Amino acid sequence: MSTDTEGDGPTTRIQREKHEIILEAALDVFANHGFRGATIDQIAEAAGMSKPNLLYYFRSKEDIHQTLIARLLDNWLAPLRHMSADGDPLEEILDYVRRKIDMARDFPRESRLFANEILQGAPRIMDMLAGPLNELVREKTTIISQWMAEGKLAKADPYHLIFSIWATTQHYADFDVQVRVVLPPEHSGEERFEEAKAFLESMFTRTLTP
Fold first, then answer.
1. pLDDT digits (tens, 9 = 90+) for 98-154
2. pLDDT 10s digits, 141-190
3. How far apart are CA 18 and CA 171, in angstroms?
């Protein structure tokens, strides 16, 4: 019986540790192979346990993937939730850009997992996209539109503004290999994220300053 799908989740320390080991291993497998290419056997091998042992904690590959996606989406939306209507408009936007670049640096596998799911048509997360993601984006675009109407930001389409932030920041996770190969060697290390952050801050500042 899967402890993950029982409502309360793993109940003992050992169960919680095994649960996290499986999810960590599955994140690598799904990020590298996508949902369709990943197998329970691959995940079990990466987790260093037998397939029957793994299936004690999760009923199926779908259960593991759903758990990872739900956790990922919650973390992925946190920077957008942080955007406050009471803050300085331009600084709120730039802070969102910074947080998204930091996530591209710190959580590249999660970004690729999400991108793989979207490229397949989002069959397993459509409810999440149509529900929590859509609601949050509507809330924040309303705030951005109000800032623009008050002359605090240059006028632009607030939805496409958010899309452009997603595209320009998550690129550094989803296409990391390409970024490192194309950049000159002296700029292809960890500093590439700070350089990207500085460039994007400058670009969005010029775009949004009234």
1. 999 999 999 998 888 888 888 889 888 888 889 999 999 999 999 999 999 999 999
2. 999 999 999 999 999 999 999 999 999 999 999 999 999 999 999 998 99
3. 32
User: In Å, what is the CA distance from 135 to each residue of 8, 81, 121, 138, 140?
Assistant: 27, 11, 20, 5, 9
Q: Domains of the chain (ranges plus CATH)?
A: 13-59 (1.10.10.60), 69-208 (1.10.357.10)
Residue 2 has pLDDT above 50, yes or no: no
Expressed in angstroms, the distance from the first to the final Cα of the chain is: 58
* CB 79 within 8 Å of CB 96: yes
3 vs 49: CA distance, rounded Å: 16
91-99 long-range contacts (CB < 8 A, ≥24 apart) are: 93/144, 93/153, 93/161, 93/165, 93/204, 93/208, 94/201, 94/204, 94/205, 96/165, 97/165, 97/168, 97/169, 97/197, 97/200, 97/201, 97/204, 98/197, 98/201
Helix (H) / strand (E) containing 111: helix 108-119
| Three-state DSSP state, 175 | coil
CB atoms within 10 A of CB 68: 22
> For residue 17, how many C-alpha atoms fall within 13 Å in the half-sphere facing its CB?
5
For residues 187 and 191, give the distance between their C-alpha atoms in angstroms, rounded to a whole number.
Answer: 7
Residue 33, H or E segment: helix 13-37
**Mean pLDDT rounded to a whole number for the chain:** 91
